[in-house]
Amino acid sequence: MDEGITRDDLNGLEARLQTRTHSDLNALEMRLLERSHNDLNALETRLLERIEKTETTLLREFRKWAVSFESRFRANEILVGGFNERVIALEERVGDLEHRSGASSE
User: Fold this and answer.
1) What is the pLDDT of residues 29-44, one digit of tens each?
2) SS3 helix, strand, coil % of the chain, rounded to 5?
3) Which pTM was predicted?
4) Three-state secondary-structure class, residue 52
5) Residue 76 has what DSSP assignment?
6) Other CB atoms within 10 Å distance of the CB of residue 4
7) Based on C-alpha coordinates, what's the Rg of the chain?
């Protein structure tokens, strides 16, 4: 009996190695795709949480600013309202003086 390796033996071995390598590569590709998908989902979740936190912080700070701005605006509105009343009173006095001055010069 000749126990040597034949060409058919080598061809069979090559075919089994190619099949095994191909299936190993497919399995590796599937694991990499799954891991990448999971990593992307986790990243997206963290990013959305961070965006939501940032939006909440911005809105909270804007509201604080708006409340203080509104208070200052109302205080200025009251102050300006007082100035308007004084200007109207001065205009009336000037109008009266002009009227008197015009009536006395006739």
Assistant:
1) 999 999 999 999 999 9
2) 90, 0, 10
3) 0.50
4) helix
5) H
6) 6
7) 44
